[in-house]
Amino acid sequence: MSFEDIPVPIGPVYEGERIRAKQMYVELGGPKMEKHFELCRVISKKEIKDGQVTIHGPDLKDMEEGSTHPIGILVEVAGPELEVDLEAVFERRIHEFCNFVNGIMHLNQRYTNWLRISKTAVEKGFNSFQLLGTVLIRLYKAELPIIEQAQVTFYTNEKEIERTYEMAMGVYDKRDERARTIHDDDVDMFYGCVLCQSFAPTHACCITPDRTSLCGSINWFDARAAAKVDPKGPLFEIPPGECLNKLAGEYTGINEMIKKRSLGEIDRIYLFSGMEFPHTSCGCFEAIDFYIPEVNGHGIVDRNYGDVAINGLPFTAMANQTGGGKQMPGFNGISIQYIVSPKYQQYDGGIETIVWMNKGVKDRVGEFLPKDLLPKIATEEEVTDINALKQWLQDVNHPIVETWAEALAEEEEEEEEWEAEGAMVPMGTVGMTIPGVGGAGGFKIILKNCKIHAEAIIIKKIEPKRKKK
Ligand code: SF4
Ligand code: ZN
User: Fold this and answer.
1) Ligand 1: residues within 6 Å at CB?
2) Facing residues of 299 across strands?
3) Where in the sequence is the domain holding 87, given as residue range(s)?
4) Residues 110 and 247 grouped into a single domain
5) pLDDT level of residue 461 (50, 70, 90 thresholds)
6) d(CA 396, CA 334)
7) What is the Å distance from ligand 1's center to 326 Cα?
8) Greater pLDDT, 111 or 453
9) To test ligand 1's pocket by mutation, which of 90, 109, 197, 213 has the most ligand atoms within 8 angstroms of CB?
10) Which listed residue, of 49, 214, 315, 441, carries a Cα 20 to 30 Å from 282's Cα?
11) Residue 198: its pLDDT value, please?
12) What is the average pLDDT across 29-40?
């Protein structure tokens, strides 16, 4: 495969390239745009003009420097061995292949896709979607030989994108609907994905029927189809092995897989917990499940939400804490589909621990959540700070309120333990907790009217304790 006719270099070495606002020529999709998408479809050979690139709307060279535009990328592929189940996994490769281009940064997937093209690339002559389409077609056929023909269509203005966007949303909904029809107990094989290791080298996704991948674009059916056609590829089988803890979703097979794939960094995962041995997060999670220690509950914020969440942090700040392939108790990257899974963070107390969601997420998952719980989950429209949230939860009698008395009793018990061990715990002190640091409850600093003179300070680790319903 040759890219000699392409004016910028192409290859995996350019994955991970960041293009900052100052360096970009244009921005496509992303949080400032309402409708944008990327989609892959398997179609018949006779519907395809192999190698064809079509552009509906302005081309790159017609776009003003510094501007932002909608983007729709439709990749259509054909081949005798292709099946519809492979579409989602092929679609996920758009991210990887765009990032192979020196001068393109591609983030996210489906309807949250976000690209930046650098000024340097445009100066070198990479000034048309024809070139990007050609690169994509060549990479698809070279990297996935079962694809025999491919064509790519770009949509770059609101009018052109409209109809295809609705079609794409319909396809995503259908995939998600199907994913909701099976559960972990119905299958004897799980799957893994390491497509994101170029960005997060210790991250590997575990994909089971009850836990779709955190990017939201690969469900169990998709992963199964991909592992079948390319067993040595980035998606692979994970024989579950022995179930060590059903509630937590801990399996010997998954632990072995993550140990191997994270090069020994991580050796244990609870599929259904954001608090203990949580699943790692790369960077393309659709949403974040975050612990709110002040109410012993959890919030969910998705990447389309531009304001600060109930804990005072914007998505971007929490994303920095969450991502990078670490295990970060209290901040867990998740897909929107996983929220409606019957096993959603069940080790931490499940869906009933959710006390806040931004409205965009609530609107999307509401119809699948328990009817009595739904009105008790606050959004930015009801409350905007923790004190108001506390009051709201009491007013609506959210199930989390029942755990507060237990939490208080346990805290008092802990304080007595410290006193018994000789620590000084003054009366009437104020505790300060910092979300996410060290997991449940964060860490606690207790100071009151004090002058400190010390020859030594001992900092003692307190193991996080979770309340279970
Ligand atoms: Fe694969 Fe997970 Fe990355 Fe999605 S988030 S592409 S499933 S590694
Ligand atoms: Zn990722």
Assistant:
1) 92, 193-196, 205, 213-215, 217-218, 282, 284
2) 290, 356
3) 12-179
4) no
5) low
6) 27
7) 15
8) 111
9) 213
10) 441
11) 84
12) 95
How far CA 264 is from CA of 260, 272, 335, in Å, comes to 6, 21, 26
* Same structural domain, 166 and 202: no
Ligand 1: atom nearest CA of 217 is 4
**Structure-token pair, residue 117:** 């093209």
Asked if residue 298 has pLDDT above 60, the reply is yes
The rounded Å distance from CA 202 to ligand 2 centre is 11
**Mean predicted lDDT score pLDDT of the chain:** 91
Q: What are phi and psi of 396, to 5 degrees?
A: -90, 0
262 Cα–ligand 1 center, Å: 14
Report the chain's terminal Cα–Cα distance, integer Å: 58
The answer to whether position 438 is within a domain reads: no
The CATH number given to whatever domain includes residue 222 is 3.40.1470.10
pLDDT at 469 over 80: no
Distance 384 CA to ligand 1 centre (A): 32
For 408-442, the pLDDT digits (tens) are 777 677 666 655 655 544 443 333 334 444 444 45
Q: How far from 207 is each of 132, 192, 304, 335, CA to CA, in Å?
A: 31, 6, 24, 11
Q: Does any domain span residue 311?
A: yes
Instruction: Output the residue whose Cα is nearest ligand 1's atom 6.
Output: 195
Q: Write down the pTM of the prediction.
A: 0.84
Are both 221 and 100 inside the same structural domain?
no
Atom 3 (ligand 1): residue with closest C-alpha? 196
Q: Is 40 part of any domain?
A: yes
Quick one: 172 and 194 in the same domain? no
Please, are residues 327 and 277 in contact by the beta-carbon 8 Å criterion? yes
Q: What is the pLDDT of residues 111-133, one digit of tens each?
A: 999 999 999 999 999 999 999 99
Name the residue of 284, 285, 288, 338 whose CB sits within 8 Å of the most ligand 1 atoms, as the mutation to test its pocket. Answer: 284
Distances (CA, A) of 79 to 25, 46, 97, 189, 229: 36, 11, 20, 27, 13
Domains contained in the chain, number = 2
Any domain includes 67: yes
Domain boundary residue among 179, 207, 241?
Answer: 179
Mark whether 169 and 204 lie in a shared domain.
no
So what's the pLDDT on residue 413?
Answer: 72
Please identify, among 114, 147, 179, the residue that sits at the C-terminal boundary of a domain: 179
Centroid of chain to Cα 179:
17
User: What residue owns the CA closest to ligand 1's atom 4?
Assistant: 215
Distance 401 CA to ligand 1 centre (A): 36
Q: Residue of the nearest CA to atom 7 in ligand 1?
A: 213
Residue-level pLDDT at 293? 95
Looking at residue 456, what is its pLDDT?
Answer: 62
